[in-house]
Design goal:
With about 130 residues, this protein is mainly β. The chain has strands at about 5, 10-15, 20-25, 35-40, 45-50, 60, 70-75, 80-85, 90-100, 115, 120-125.
């Protein structure tokens, strides 16, 4: 079992930056692909970004490409999501998730590919 805890959310203004962290316990995170999803009020949870176990592969939703960057420090058992140039439409609860994900055919976008989920952290971007 892997327990995931997100942190780093908060209230910021449009154009600001935040860095989310996803810390793992229970088992090493280095065996897993880690994804970031978000859920805005009244909307379904959606894919944001993913990073493979070694950090050599990253994929992003078009809505965040060029603004968000996923990274990981396996020695610290932690994955990060650097979010720059934040927009009000980025407002959501952000979840990190881990799993043995098939890294082809956009499978990484599917929530069913991931086995472990954090409780989420709120990001609010004011205009």
């Amino acid at each position: 079992q892997v327990q995931l805890v997100e942190s780093g959310g908060g209230l910021v203004q449009a154009g600001d930056s935040l860095r989310l962290s996803c810390a793992a316990s229970g088992r090493t995170l280095s065996s897993y692909t880690v994804g970031w999803f978000r859920q805005a009020p009244g909307k379904d949870r959606e894919f944001v970004a993913t990073i493979n176990w070694s950090g050599t592969l990253t994929y992003y939703d078009d809505s965040v490409k060029g603004r968000f960057t996923a990274s990981r420090d396996n020695a610290k058992n932690t994955v990060y999501l650097q979010m720059n140039s934040l927009k009000p439409e980025d407002t959501a609860v952000y979840y990190c998730t881990a799993g043995v994900v098939r890294m082809y055919g956009s499978m990484w976008r599917r929530q069913s590919e991931y086995d472990y989920w954090g409780q989420g952290t709120q990001v609010t971007v004011s205009s």
